[in-house]
Design goal:
The chain is mainly alpha-helical. The protein has one domain: Transferase(Phosphotransferase), domain 1. It contains 8 helices and 4 strands. It has a 4-stranded mixed sheet with strand order 1-4-3-2. It is globular.
Length: about 230
Amino acid sequence: MDSDPSNQYYLYLVEKLDDSPETQSLEDILGSSLGTVGSRMARAGCMLRGRNRLFLAATLASTVLRFHGSWLKPEWRSRDILFPKKMGNGKSVIEQPYLSGHQIAPFGATVPTTSTSTSALIRNEVLFPLGLALVELSLCQTISALRIPADDDPVEANANLKTAVRVLDDVYLESGGHYGDIVAKCLFWTETRKSNIGDEFQQLVFQNIVSPPFDDLKVFEGRSRVF
C-alpha cells in the first residue's frame, strides 16, 4: 500500500497555531452554505464544489487509515479539520487541510485520553467519524444542521447516526453510488467490529474505503478512462 501514490494524500499535523495565519474549519465552511438545509441551493452556495469534495473525501479516508490509533483523536469531527483563510501562493485553501491541537506523546509514553459515551449502535469507532464527515461533504451541511427532532437521542453518537442514516439516500443522489457505498460502509461496517491497526483491518479499509474515492477523483480529473 505504501507504493500507492494515493496514500500520499493526508492531513498535515500542526501542534501550535500561535504564529500561523487565521484559519477556518471545515465546519465553518459547511456552515456558510446558503439556502434551505440539505437543499441543492445550499450546496450551490458552498465553496466545496465537486472536485474539492472528492479531494477532501479521499484525503480524509487516507488520513484515517494512516493515523488512526496514533495522533488522530478517536472522535474527530469537521470542526477539527482546518484550512488557512488565505493562501499567498495562488493555491486553493482546500489543498492544504490539517488537524491542529491533538496531543502527541513522546515515543514510549502514553497519552491520557478522555472517554465519552460510546454506543452499541456504532459498528466501528474508527470509521464512524469518517462516515459523518463524508455525509457533510456530500450535502455541504453539518450533521447538526441536518438533524431533525426525530433524530434526537441522549447519546450524541446515536443522534449523529440517526441523522446520517436518514439522509443517506440524499448522499447517493448527490454524490453517486460509489461515494454512497463508502459512506454506508463507514456507518454499517460489517467486516470486523474491532477497530485495530492490524494488517487485515488496514487492507480491508484500503480496499473498501480509501481506494474508491481516489479512483473517482482520477475519473473526475480525467486521469482515468471510463468504459
